[in-house]
Amino acid sequence: MTVIAHISDLHTSKSDFDEEVFMQAASEINNLKPDMIVLTGDLTGHGYYVEFEQAKKYLEMFEAPLFVVPGNHDARNLGYQTFEELIGERSWKLSVGEDLTVIGLDSSSPDEDRGHIGGPQHMWLEHQLDECVINENFSIVALHHHVISIPQTGRERNVLSDAGDILKTLTTHEVDLILSGHKHVPNIWRINETIVVNAGSLCSTKLRGNIRNSYNVYNITDDEIEIFLNNVGGEKLLFGKYPRNEL
After folding, report:
1. Are 101 and 137 spatial neighbours (Cβ–Cβ below 8 Å)?
2. Could you tell me if 179 and 197 are in contact, meaning their C-beta atoms sit under 8 angstroms apart?
């Protein structure tokens, strides 16, 4: 079984970051001993260099391998450059063994809240997913911006501007999981055989209504995918359970 922790939207800053909640979440996730942690963006509040330095120190507390894509807040104030200097590549491909591929996309635009993948990155994505189909790999795509509107988030804004084209590519290539953040509200959609999962905010104070700080955990076996919603310091809920795609 492969265990993946999915975290998002830390918003490391002087105003919106709750250090106590982060420390609790880090302890819980380390105790889970996941095979990897995927962070879908907004690790900073404003993209300032000092915020990236602080975020990096916090992220080093995780014991499992960590893979990060940037969010719209990370692309502010030259943060898209700082991300590459202090965190790593903004888009990437990870192969785990012979049958699992995780692809990270940069959906951010400098100093804009909107999400956008763009032509060159879209072509690269299609090439990587073609290989996944040929090799019959379990495929996961991670990005910050949501590709489908999320309930309980009010007026829709900042959805991926080329969401239709990207969603068509993801579903026609039978991507198993799409992971995103941005809206601070956990949610699951299923389109054809593709499961689209949104994570809440791990530790920021920017929460809607009575929604709690949370993270998702995915247990992936040869037969099924279990998705758990873990409220930080609270209950653990079975969020969804799905059979693996038959290849």
Report:
1. yes
2. yes
E strand or H helix at 36: strand 36-40
The C-alpha atoms of residue 149 and residue 142 are separated, in whole angstroms, by 16
Which range marks the domain in which residue 91 is found?
2-243
Give me the phi and psi of 114, to 5 degrees please.
-65, 155
Per-residue pLDDT of the chain (247 residues; tens, 9 = 90+): 899 999 999 999 999 999 999 999 999 999 999 999 999 999 999 999 999 999 999 999 999 999 999 999 999 999 999 999 999 999 999 988 889 999 999 999 998 888 999 999 999 999 999 999 999 999 999 999 999 999 888 877 778 889 899 999 999 999 999 999 999 999 999 998 899 999 999 999 999 999 999 999 999 999 999 999 999 999 999 999 999 875 4
Q: What is the pTM of this model?
A: 0.95
Residue 91 makes CB contacts below 8 A (sequence gap 6+) with 69, 103, 104, 105, 106, 121, 124
Number of domains in the chain: 1
Query: How far apart (Å, rounded) are the C-alpha atoms in residues 9 and 200?
Result: 7
CA distance readout (Å), 242 to 60, 78, 119: 32, 41, 32
- Could you tell me how many residues make up the chain? 247
Query: Which CATH number characterizes residue 159's domain?
Result: 3.60.21.10
